[in-house]
Input
Amino acid sequence: MKDYRSIYEEWLSNPYFDEATKEELQRIKDDDNEIKERFYQDLEFGTAGLRGVIGAGINRMNIYVVRKATQGLANYIIKQGGAHKGVAIAYDSRHMSPEFAEEAALTLAANGIKAYKFESLRPTPELSFAVRNLGCIAGLNITASHNPPEYNGYKVYWEDGAQFTPPHDQGVTAEVLAITDISTVKIITREEAVAADKYEIIGAAVDDAYIAQVKAQVMNQSAIHEMKDELSIVYTPSPWYRQCSGQKSLKRAWIYQGLCGARAGTARWRFSHCQLSQSRGGGSLSAGSFPGERKGCRSGFSHRS
Output
């Protein structure tokens, strides 16, 4: 176990850490158990990356822990000779996801690795596609998947578009663990990154290529054209996905007109007869109230990170 008190004091005194972080830590100065929980160990860099509660400390998800993880990834990429390929970055709608994505991009840029960051929320499969479409060495997805809202995460993908596996996961983990001083992590401003051509916002062009590949998987497009007015589909994406490429792909596949479902959060509006459970503090369709059954839908699909 680390000397959590000395690390806590270091975060309070080191000018590297911002004032908001220090104010958060000051509020727990008399709570030794909370200080211990935040500083007794580093947030574990395990399978696919990081996942933890958002907050100040080395055992929490925050911009400094994200920078450290990205520095370790950058060190490994450089040793693998892949710095010229760049890294694609996507993020979801969780608290701090856009900020963590930006910090990761700027840390990569500071290490001479170009970051291709999506302009807004994108689904996980599109991140996987972007890694291959852009010829990147790796990808980052800022998401904690199904975890409670106080969590966020940092998932690493390799150049094949899949979450990294041996030996790359072990190599990146070793590089992250080798960083003993968070304040030594490289960082530059967005303006400096753009000027160095190490930061690029991506969006519509990758969306179009991704949706084209999705449509290419259709086995009988003529049947869709013929029956589109009779198709009924229940569509239950993650809330943040609904307004992004999922809706675009439905429209382009000529089946959007048949959409008879939406995310659970709007189910009561769309289906007055449906009941919503309140598990995990959010709405979800309860058993026995699946709208597809009530509406006589012939198909359904869901999307999540």
